[in-house]
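WARN  no MSA supplied for this record, continuing single-sequence
INFO  ligand: protoporphyrin IX containing FE
INFO  echoing inputs
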Amino acid sequence: MGGERTATGERTGGCPVVDLFSADFTADPWPAFARLQHTAPVHHDPATGLWLVSRYGDVRRVLLDPERFRPDNTLDAVVRMSVPALRHLAAAGFALPPTLANNGTDRHAGLRRLVSGLLSGSRVAAAAPLVERLTHRHLDAVEAALTAHGRCDLVATLTRDLPFAVMLDLLGLGADAGAGTGADLGTLARWNDASLELFWGRPPRARQPGLARLAADFFTWLGGLADRAEPGRPGLLGLLAAHRHPDGTPLGRQEIIAVCYFMIIAGQATTGQMLATMLRRALHDTALWPRLGGEPGLARAWAEEMLRREPPLTAWRRVTAAPVRIGDTDLPAGAPLLLMLAATGSDPDVFDAPHALRPGRPRARDHLSFGIGRHRCPGAALARMEARVVLRTVSRRCPTLRLARPLSEEPLLGLLSFRAPTRVTVRLDAG
Ligand code: HEM
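INFO  complex generated
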């Protein structure tokens, strides 16, 4: 074990070094996860000031104790932003008051009920045919690109836009986003990507103002949505306008914007990243790929294994409300934690031979990739449905699809909380 820690974070034993933003860590984080779990399960990272919590049992206990481990810091920027970047955000009135993921107040439960209703099991099941139709429509474009160029990027043609369209439909925002609204799917994706990098990345100072301007444009566009929110309107906007907090007050404009901002990012980025990661791994395994479309239940079970082993949302934050002990480490009040969800899915104390993808393994759904407890992801059923329908449909229609480049040559996004390929180039197998 790595020795006792003091409240200021000094370690009395050996200290593993992890650079959470390095290309090596992004490409292959599992050795670092194992090292942390084994030698320093609660590790102070001097580069970010965060306490890295990597063992399944510790992370689970933290998530299930929202009084001592608060969610207030979940949407804070990881790095201090430059003044020009902050000016862009301030000019748009950018602010994210507590609403969903970052809300530890008594106003959380009501808002959560509201979005959970839109993402209920029956609504998700009813959306499955739409996902299949959209997958086929995107595959038409994939096949056209393959015919014309011999290669095609599945991120640009399939995984980026599909979850967007599904989520906008479920939230009743389809008519508000698209051609003629100033926010087609490409623009929304650019805004999303900029927001992720600005808040969860380590962008150089020179890059920050450009990212902040895009996040500010996103916020301004959402302000237009908030202004159209009125009770009786179908979907998310109508529900938000009609909602009352426990003290009887309606949501403020900033709160409506903040809910929409989070839902659009949560609903598109994570799910698109999940699909890109799954397609990349599945296509790499040429024996598995054609089976995903034909064997009943395989796509569902294999997708669950991928969620455990290689989730898109790799880590999430909490902050201690009072002095507390995790394992053998004493932490002061106000200590920011990074709960390493991706590490917990490969904790050998819970998952036997964690590196192996074994569809249907014991405790297959016990991973923490969607969180657990009061803030557990209400979009989990939607994400799971999209994973199995997309894998099954693409495999069935394109059983001879292959990766056109070795895994190591495709770029990966590596942010504090998000990890996924940004390109999945494919070709058809000639043989
Ligand atoms: C593979 C895809 C996804 C993953 C891995 C994922 C993961 C997560 C995680 C880890 C949390 C935080 C849990 C916690 O703090 O305890 C979360 C929260 C949340 N997610 Fe997801 N998510 C995904 C897709 C979605 C989708 C599709 C939606 C909606 C359309 C969504 C909406 C939300 C919301 C609203 C919250 C905040 C819930 C609350 O604070 O009560 N997510 N998600």
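The first helix runs from residue 23 to 27.
INFO  checksum written, moving to next record
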